[in-house]
């Protein structure tokens, strides 16, 4: 019976490792797309806003960015759920003596850090540049040459962009707390430093 239990635990650990590797691949793609969006935002904010054609170009770029970010977030729904499962497995003391446990943790940490890097960078682009465009498109700015309705549409899109950056931080706070809070800290601190990934 003990041999069967040990075999099942090894198979379980192998499954968790394969699951975490698949999650890591999804996060790689997610991070690359988010990094691309991060590089795109300053270019969009630098576009001219003098004519209605300018505004159309600006709005088109913003909507394309918004749709791309939304699709990217939707694609992370299943991997994100699976990552919670892996984290729960890592936190179980009876699993931490398994040979595969440090390897699963290593893949988890690498994927998580890449995800954090991409998310933090997206939420930290130049707010001063955004603030200038918001002031420029306020209805009480007499120097803006855009028609009021067009100006209002541009202003709303700029506000949505600012809100998206904040939402990225807020949406992933629960996972960050679970990963780096008391339970997550115990997981990381309970293993030898030699098996932790090096970044």
Structural class label: mainly alpha
Average the pLDDT over all residues and give the rounded result. 79
First and last CA, distance: 42 Å
SSE order:
HHHHHHHH
Strand content: under 5%
Largest sheet: none
Helix amount: over 70%
Q: Please tell me the total number of domains.
A: 1
Which CATH architecture is right?
Up-down Bundle
Poorly predicted regions: 182-199
Q: What is the CATH C level class, in words?
A: Mainly Alpha
Count every helix, treating DSSP H or I runs of 4 or more residues as helices.
8
Number of strands: 0
Q: Tell me the overall shape.
A: rod-shaped
**Rg over alpha carbons:** 22 Å
Per the CATH scheme, the topology name is Methane Monooxygenase Hydroxylase, Chain G, domain 1
Sequence-ordered SSE layout with sheet pairings:
Blueprint: H1 2-45, H2 52-75, H3 77-90, H4 101-122, H5 127-136, H6 148-171, H7 173-180, H8 182-189
Account of the 3D structure:
By secondary structure, the chain is mostly helical. Helix 2 runs parallel beside helix 6 (148-171). It has one domain (2-185): Methane Monooxygenase Hydroxylase, Chain G, domain 1. The protein has helices at residues 2-45, 52-75, 77-90, 101-122, 127-136, 148-171, 173-180, 182-189. 77% of the residues lie in helices and 0% in strands. It has 8 helices and no strands.
């Amino acid at each position: 019976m003990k041999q069967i239990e040990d075999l099942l635990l090894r198979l379980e650990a192998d499954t968790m490792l394969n699951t975490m590797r698949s999650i890591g691949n999804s996060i790689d793609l997610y991070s690359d797309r988010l990094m691309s969006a991060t590089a795109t935002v300053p270019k969009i904010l630098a576009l001219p806003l003098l004519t209605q054609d300018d505004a159309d170009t600006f709005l088109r770029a913003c909507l394309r960015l918004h749709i791309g970010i939304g699709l990217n977030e939707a694609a992370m729904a299943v991997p994100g759920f699976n990552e919670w499962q892996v984290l729960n497995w890592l936190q179980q003391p009876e699993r931490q003596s398994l040979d595969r446990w440090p390897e699963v943790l290593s893949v988890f940490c690498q994927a998580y850090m890449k995800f954090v890097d991409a998310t933090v960078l997206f939420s930290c682009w130049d707010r001063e540049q955004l603030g200038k465009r918001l002031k420029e498109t306020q209805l009480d700015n007499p120097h803006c040459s855009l028609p009021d309705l067009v100006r209002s549409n541009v202003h709303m899109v700029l506000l949505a962009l600012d809100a998206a950056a904040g939402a990225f931080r807020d949406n992933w706070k629960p996972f960050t707390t679970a990963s780096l809070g008391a339970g997550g800290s115990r997981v990381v601190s309970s293993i030898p430093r030699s098996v932790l990934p090096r970044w």
